[in-house]
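Submission sheet (multi-component)
Chains listed below:
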Amino acid sequence: MAMVCLSDFEAHAKKYLPKIAWDYFAAGTDDCITRDENTLAYKRIRFRPRMLRDVSVMDIRTKILGNEISFPVGIAPTGFHQLAWPDGEKSTARAAKAMNTCYITSTYSTCSLEEISAAAPGGLRWFQLYIHRNRAASQQLVQRAEGLGFQALVLTADLPYMSKRRDDIRNGFRLPPHMKLKNLEQEFEVCKKSLMDPSVTWNDIHWLQSLTHLPIIVKGILTKEDAELAVRHGVRGIIVSNHGGRQLDEVPATIDVLAEIVEAVRGRVEVYLDGGIRKGSDVLKALALGAKCVFIGRPALWGLAYKGEEGLQDVLRILQDEFRLSMALAGCASVSEIGRHLVQVSKL
Amino acid sequence: MAMVCLSDFEAHAKKYLPKIAWDYFAAGTDDCITRDENTLAYKRIRFRPRMLRDVSVMDIRTKILGNEISFPVGIAPTGFHQLAWPDGEKSTARAAKAMNTCYITSTYSTCSLEEISAAAPGGLRWFQLYIHRNRAASQQLVQRAEGLGFQALVLTADLPYMSKRRDDIRNGFRLPPHMKLKNLEQEFEVCKKSLMDPSVTWNDIHWLQSLTHLPIIVKGILTKEDAELAVRHGVRGIIVSNHGGRQLDEVPATIDVLAEIVEAVRGRVEVYLDGGIRKGSDVLKALALGAKCVFIGRPALWGLAYKGEEGLQDVLRILQDEFRLSMALAGCASVSEIGRHLVQVSKL
Amino acid sequence: MAMVCLSDFEAHAKKYLPKIAWDYFAAGTDDCITRDENTLAYKRIRFRPRMLRDVSVMDIRTKILGNEISFPVGIAPTGFHQLAWPDGEKSTARAAKAMNTCYITSTYSTCSLEEISAAAPGGLRWFQLYIHRNRAASQQLVQRAEGLGFQALVLTADLPYMSKRRDDIRNGFRLPPHMKLKNLEQEFEVCKKSLMDPSVTWNDIHWLQSLTHLPIIVKGILTKEDAELAVRHGVRGIIVSNHGGRQLDEVPATIDVLAEIVEAVRGRVEVYLDGGIRKGSDVLKALALGAKCVFIGRPALWGLAYKGEEGLQDVLRILQDEFRLSMALAGCASVSEIGRHLVQVSKL
Amino acid sequence: MAMVCLSDFEAHAKKYLPKIAWDYFAAGTDDCITRDENTLAYKRIRFRPRMLRDVSVMDIRTKILGNEISFPVGIAPTGFHQLAWPDGEKSTARAAKAMNTCYITSTYSTCSLEEISAAAPGGLRWFQLYIHRNRAASQQLVQRAEGLGFQALVLTADLPYMSKRRDDIRNGFRLPPHMKLKNLEQEFEVCKKSLMDPSVTWNDIHWLQSLTHLPIIVKGILTKEDAELAVRHGVRGIIVSNHGGRQLDEVPATIDVLAEIVEAVRGRVEVYLDGGIRKGSDVLKALALGAKCVFIGRPALWGLAYKGEEGLQDVLRILQDEFRLSMALAGCASVSEIGRHLVQVSKL
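Outcome: structure written.
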C-alpha cells in the first residue's frame, strides 16, 4: 500500500499495533468528543487563496524561541513510544533531528533522557514535565534535562488528575512488564499512580524558574484568561492544547480557541498548538490564525509504528510537502506572508 | 462486561429487560425528538476550563432546600420500579440513602410510601404528586407523605393528559397483574385512566399550600413566563423538565432552556433540572448554567435493572466520580466555584 | 399492524400501492429537496409550552371563510384518487363530510364534480382550478362548480408548466386506461398535455371574478411580494404551498415562509398552508405561525389507499386527536389561544 | 436505463470508464472537501419564486463577450478528452457547436487545436492556457489559437504547481501511451512535469496582452481582492473557479464566493463560474447571484463517455430544458429578469 497521506499511516497502525496499544494511543476521554472535534474543526475553516503571486522560490522555515526549524511542525510530547516501535523515543529523536525540527520529549518516555540525547546529539529538544508531589524528583528531572541540552521546559497544565478513558479501563491498560518509565523508575516505587501534584498553581511557575535558566512554556491553555495569566507569570510560550482530547472532554478543538488566545497574548510570547493536525493545509490554517508552530502527537506515533525513525520521517516529509504546496497554492512564498486574511472561519 | 459508564447500564437494560418494560422506560412522545434532544443538547456546550488551580482537595457536596447531599445529583420521579427490579422503589430508596442523596418518589410507585419509608428510614425523600380529580385523594396522599417524613412536595405540571407514546400503544403496555400502584389502589377502582385533573391552574398551588407545611416544588417548567408565575405563587423550587421527552414532543431540551429560567428566577428559588444527564460532565454543565442540582430518571432505572440497589449505587458512584473529575479538570475545587464562565453554548 | 400515526399509513401505502402509483404520489421535482424539507422544517421549530392552565374543556373548532370545521385541517387538492382507491374522490368527499372538514377538490379528479357532489351532499368543498388555454373550458368548469355548491375557487398559481419528476419519467407514468379525468374529457381530446395556460397573470384574477360570485383563493404563494399582490387583486385567501415539492425544487418549506406571508398580509385575508403536515403538533406549529387552517395532501391519499373513506377518516381522526392533545399539553384550550409565543424557530 | 438527469450520466461513466480514467476525472485534492462542497453549496440556496407572470414565451439566450449563445452554459476547460471518448476534443467541439454554446478548449487536449478547429468550423471557442516556463512556447500557443479563430484567452491562475490528488498517486496515473498532449508535444520532451511557471504574477497579463488582440479572461479567482486586481489589469472576464476542487482543497465552493466577486467587480467585466453545476436550477442560482454564464466540467466528460458528441449534446439539452423550466417556474421569461431577489442564501 502506498503511504500517500497521514491517514494511510493511521490505518496501518490500527491494523498492525496490538489492540491495547492502538486503543491507548487513540483514546480520548469519555465520549471522545474533543478528540474528534480536534480534526473536524479544521473542516469548518476555508481558505481565501490569492492568485498570480510569485511562488517559484518557497521558504517554509521558521524559528521557535530563536531556533530555526525546517518547517513549523514539531513533535508533541506523548508517552510510551516503545509501544509503537522497539527503539522508542530514540527513534523519535533521530527522526526529528534528521528533519531538523523540534521534539518535545515526554517525562513518560520509555527511554531515559540520557539515552534520547545520546541517540541524536545536537537535536533541538524541549523537555515536557509535570510537577510531582515529590518536588525534589521534579527538580532533579529539570536539572537533568537542562544538563543534557534540552532547550526549554514544557509544563503540562491540564493534568492535575488522569482523566477517564473508557477503552483503557476496559482493556486494563498498563505498560508491558519489559517497558519502563525510565525517567521515573525510583519515584514510581514510592508513590505509584499519584505522582502528579493536583495542588499546583501559577505560583509554581516561579518555583520552576528558580530551578533553571531554561525558558518555560506552558501547555494545555484553552482560554484567554489563562493565556493572560501565563504571560504575567513569565512563561516564554504557550501551547494551546487539550491533550489530544485525553483530558477534560467537551472542551473546544484547539484550532477553535487559537485566535482568542493569540489575540489575548498580543505578541508578548509565542503561541503554539497541538491537536488534530493531519494535513499540510491544517498547518497553514493554524499559522494563519496566529500559531508560530504546531506539534503532532498521534501522527508521530503512527509513523513510528510504520517503520521507526524512517516512518516518522515519512510522516514529517509528507506534512512538509503538503504544507509547502498549500502555501504556494494559497499564494504565500514564505511563512511571513501567512496571515489572518488567508482564512474564513464558520461559527459552530 | 465492565460497567464503565452509564451507557453500559443502558445497553445492559436493553438486553435483559422484557421488551415491553424497556420500551415503556425508553418511550418518548410521537417522534421522540425531545427525548433525544435532551442528551444531544449537551454536545453543543463546550467547557472553558481553567488551569493551574489547586484542586487537591475536592468538595462536591451541595445543599438543596437546606439539606446537604453528597453531590448535586438526585433521583427523578419515575414510576413502576418493579418493572426494573423485584424490590422496586424500596431498592431505590436504599441506594439513594446509601449514597446520601435525594430520592423524589413518584405517586406511581409499585411500593407504598410506607414501604419505601420503612426500607430506608431517615433518607432524604421528596414526594412527587399530581392533583387528581378526586381532590380528597390528593389531600390524603399529601398528608400521608408529610406524616412519613417526606421533606418536600414536587407537583408535576406538565401532565394534564397522558401524551401519545407510540411504542406503548403498539405494545398494549399495561402494568403486569402482580404489580400494583400501591399508593392509589382505592382510587383506581373508582375512575381508571382519568385520575389527573386537567383543570388544575396556578391557583391550586395555594390549595396545596393550605394542606401542608412542606415546601412545594413545581416540575415541568420550560419558559421564563411560567418560572415567574411559579415564584409569584410561592413555590420553593422549580424543576426544569420536559418529562424526559414523554409529554409534549418538540419542546426544547431542558439544558437549552435552563439559563432562561435561572435568569428569570433571579435567585429567589432554587432551580433544578432533569433530562439527558448521562455523564458527570453533564452535571457540571447544568450547574454552570445555574442548576442547583440535577435528577436522573432513566439511568436510575438502568441501575436498578442491573443489580437493584447495588446497581443504582454503581450508577450514582460513577456519576459522582465523573463529576468530581470533571470539576477538577475544569479547575473547580468546590461546587461554589462553578459558574457561567465555565461554558460556552452554541446556538442551535 | 396497528395504525398509530400517519407514518404507519405511509408505510402501508408504500407496501400495497402499485409502484407506479406510489411513485406518482410520492414524487417531488428533481432531487426532491423541497418535498423533504417540507417535513424536516418542522423539526427545527420548538414549542414554548405553558403549564397549569385549565385545559379540561378543549375546543378545537375553527372557521374558514366563515364556515365552521371540526378542526383546522382540510384536504388539499391532489389528482387521481382512483389510483389510491376504486371509489376515488367520492370516498374522499364522504370522509371529509363525515369529519366535518373542507375538501378542496382537484380539477384532475377521476370522478366528476357531479359524482363527488352527489356522494356527500352538503359537505364543505372548494374547487381547485387552473386557467386553461381554452378559457371557455375554464369558465364552464367554474360555473359547474358554483352550480354544484362548491363554496370557493382555489386557483393554483405555481404550475404554468409541469415540472420534471424523475421517477414519473423513468416509470413512463400515465393514468391507467380505465381511469379518466372526468372533468376534462372533452378538452383533453383537443389539446392533450398543454391544457394549462402559461401566460396567466394577476389580471386574470379579475377575469375569474367576473365569472363567479365565489370567493377566490390563490394557492402556491411563497413570497411576501406575491402575497401583497394577491391581496391587492382581491383574493379572499392564500394557500402557502409549494405543490408538495412537486413544482420548482429548492424553494423553501412552506412552514419556513409562512410567517413572512402572514406578516405581509396583516390580517386582510386568511392564510392557509399545505405541505409536510404529518402530526397534530405540526398543525399546532402552523397555527402558531399564523395559518388559519392547514391542508393535507399525501396523508389523505395514504388514508384512501388503506381503506377508502374509512381509512381517510382514520387519518383525520388521528390528526385531530394529536392536535387536541398537543394543544392541551401546550396550555391552549381553544384555537384562539394559539399564537406566535408558542414557538421558537431556529434559523436554517 | 433512461438518461433523465446528469447524475444518470455520472453513474454511467463510473460504471463504464476504466477506473484509472474515472478516478482522474473525479479526483479532488487531499480530502476532496472543496470538490464535494461545490455541489453541496447549491443545496443551501433557496428560490423565492414569483407567480402569475406571463412565461408563455421563454427566451433563454444570453451573450458572453458579445457573442450570443443558446443558453448560459458552456464547456469548461478539462484535459484528456480521449480518456472519455476516442474522438476526444473533436467530439466536444462538435457538440458545443451543435448546441450553439461556447467551448473553452484546454491546453491539455488530446487533439490539436487545429484538429479541434477543423472538426467544428465556426464554433465559438475560447482557448485556455497556462504561462509556461518556456515563454516562447506559450507565445506560440497563443498565436496559434488566435490564428485558428479562438475568440478569447482564458488564463488559468490557480495552478502554479499541480496539487496532490491521492487517487492519481495511488493509481500511478499517466496518459496511456497512444494518447498525446497534441499541443505540447515538443515542449514536453524538453521539460517534463514542470511546464508551468510558478513565478507568474499579475504583470504577466500585460505580457499576454502584448502578444494578442484577443480578450483575456482569468480563471481561478476566489476573492474580491483578486477580482479587483484582475479588473485593474485589464482582463475582460473572470471565471470564479476552484479548478473543480482539484487545486487547493478547502477553499469555498464557487457559488459561495460568487456574490462577493460580482459585488467587487461592479459590472466592469463579465463574471462567469464553474464548479458543481448539476441541474438547470443550479444555473439559475448562479445567474441570480450575478454570473453571466456558467461552465460545466465533469458533466461534459460524462456526456462524452456516454456517447461522444451525441452524449454531450444530451447533457447540454437536459441542462437547457431544466434551466428553461426552472426559469419559468420561478417567474422569469427571459435571462434579463433573473436577479438577486430570486434567491435566499443560508450562511454556512
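Remark: Chain A has one domain: 6-50+68-325.
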